[in-house]
Amino acid sequence: MAGVGVLCRFGARLLSGGLSGSIHVVTEAAEPGIRNRGLWCVITRHINNNTTWWDEHLSDENTRFLKKLTSEEYKAQTASKLCPLKDEPWPLHPWEPGSRRVGIVAIKLGMMPLWTKNGERIAVTMLQVQDCHVLKHIPKEEYDGKNPALIIGGKNVSSFRKPESVTEMYREVGVPPKQKTVTCKVSQNAIIKPGTPLYAAHFRPGQYVDVTAKTIGKGFQGVMKRWGFKGQPASHGQTKTHRRPGAISNSKVAKVFKGKKMPGQMGNRFRTNFGLKVWRISVKHNIIYVNGSVPGHRNCLVKICDSALPPYRGEFKNAPFPTFFADGEEELPDELYDEDVFQFSEPSISFA
Prior knowledge:
Elements: H1 12-16, E1 23-27, E2 39-43, H2 60-80, E3 104-115, E4 121-128, E5 132-138, E6 149-156, H3 164-173, E7 178-185, E8 197-198, E9 208-214, E10 219-221, H4 223-226, E11 264-266, E12 270-282, E13 287-291, E14 301-306, E15 335-337
Antiparallel strand pairs: 1-2, 3-4, 3-14, 4-13, 5-6, 5-8, 6-7, 9-12, 9-14, 10-11, 12-13, 12-15
């Protein structure tokens, strides 16, 4: 039937108010047996998608040339920031009670065992600091009115996949674009000049840190896997309720309390492990060995800060303040160990 497949019909009020834009008015023809319903309108939507990939109009040879040129430029930018103390650094202040240092961004490599001198086996997580720099200083007036903050980033990435608004901040500092950026609240005496590199020697063995990362996503899970519920019996009259949670409230309350353990999204949330001890620091390879497990999958990016727990707030007073400078006066060996960690270069048995 003619006119039946029209997209939409507007009322007389809309038509009388005037139509603007790409609207075409169609008069439905009256057919035998069909009542004439008046005016019909068809709205035509014009989509202008002019976005293109950065290498869409480039040849393969030009694409390889740009990638090679960009990689060499990023290496030169990283090398130019290795000596921040010689490039007019900001004033450095000594440590004071209540000082708060900046954190770092590291890559989770995996887990391995360490042994103490008493023979106890310890499971540690290896976190590698790779191309971590201070990107921006935020004054306290622009942050929260109490403390300033520093934006740091880790792991260089290609700028071809970053928008122009994001790459502008990296151009001002003179460092390559970063895969992950985080904001760290610091004290007034711990401010560092943007562009300063951060290393694993920022922390020291025996210190306690807090590690934040996004947990592995498990999708939508039931109460048995998400919360460890026992479940209901497998027999004795149970029908299709073996993995169900059971009652979630009662008739007197007549509501479900907030925080009730029920099925839902498991994982893919930012979690922080507090009070993890640093057992070993590899100065040569920029690796931090922290106690126990850390949220996130392998090769994920994590944020490491000085522990905020009250018993450990004053433990980092012997750590470099405000950070470790590679061109400073302090010279470190390739490996730093906690006093309780057994080193395989030492003899395990001593004879009197």
